[in-house]
Amino acid sequence: MEASQARRLRHAIIGVGAGILNGHRPALALPIVDLVAASDINTTIGQQRADELQCAFYADYRQMLAEMQPDVVVILTPPFLHASMVIESLRAGCHVLVEKPMALQVAEADEMIATAHRYKRVLGVVFQQRYRPEIMAARKMLQEGFLGKIQRVELMAVWTRPSFYYQMAPWRATWSGEGGGIVTNQASHNLDLLCHLLGSPRRVFAWTRNLLHQIETEDTVQAMLEWQDRALGMVHISSAEADDPEHLKIIGTRGSLEIGRGKLLARTLDLDMSEYALTSHDPYAQPVHHPHAITLEQGQGNHIAVYRDFHDALLHGNSDYADGVQACQELELANAMIYSSHCHCEVELPLNRQRYSSLLKDLRAQ
What we know:
Elements: H1 3-6, E1 9-14, H2 21-28, E2 33-39, H3 43-53, E3 56-58, H4 61-68, E4 72-75, H5 82-91, E5 95-99, H6 106-118, E6 123-126, H7 133-143, E7 150-158, H8 163-167, H9 187-198, E8 203-209, E9 220-226, E10 232-238, E11 246-252, E12 255-260, E13 263-269, H10 273-279, E14 289-292, H11 303-316, H12 324-343, E15 347-348, H13 353-365
Parallel strand pairs: 1-2, 1-4, 2-3, 4-5, 5-6, 7-10
Antiparallel strand pairs: 7-11, 8-9, 8-15, 9-10, 11-12, 12-13, 13-14
């Protein structure tokens, strides 16, 4: 019998009253999960959820950590609480799985990662969209060099939200509660996929705007990116528009990939563009493209896949999951976009932590 089957891991939840709990419920039913406790400052809904999950309830998560001593803590609280709760849970000897974004600013993420290393615990971040079949297939193709040298990346994503969405919680789309708006909340999934597939960019120039909503932060971002190998990219993400949920196009010297929700289109070139540019004697002809057949696996990105990889990491040392170091890349990119827009400048990564902290402090004061 495998270790993951023989051993059950004691789990506890901080923020069990959160709406996102429903996404976690199927994963909490995995055989390896022994849910022993849950906590929430809203004692009414917290107790109700704990009763549904058949576990102990605590109003004070610190008391829960001390008394229950769980193997794993799952944190579902609002973003401004993530950093402090993750660090406390790690210091209590727990492995931690936290909802995105892992923190409000990259300096906090650095401390979270350092604490995980210091206490030899696994820190994971919930980025379930990495497990969408089309994303997994695209990543494999990119790793195998299917596209040759990457030249251009285009990402457009729309997360349409009405005003009512922002009124549901006072921390939403505020500098103190989320450290931003669309960039740090919904766009975190898209930015994570960019970094997951292509690595972190080295240069960013961005414009954040509030085009529609009466909120403190932005509802739209437009950015230009450059990667280390000189590939160029464009990003547009908004909660103030009505359009297709997501379109990601990656162009390389050998072909292209177009990724949407549940679909992946691939094309190959007869000749690598580097060879075509040197050898073609027709000044106007286009290289010949061919469709490339792809069979996607069944299923879709969900929390079960996140939990399974997280458990595999803490039991067997598997690192192929969204650990703190990987997840920090999207947060740094999000912070860089906000900094670029508000300071009207191009930003080179790694982002200067002190300067960003100063900017965030000023934005909160305003």
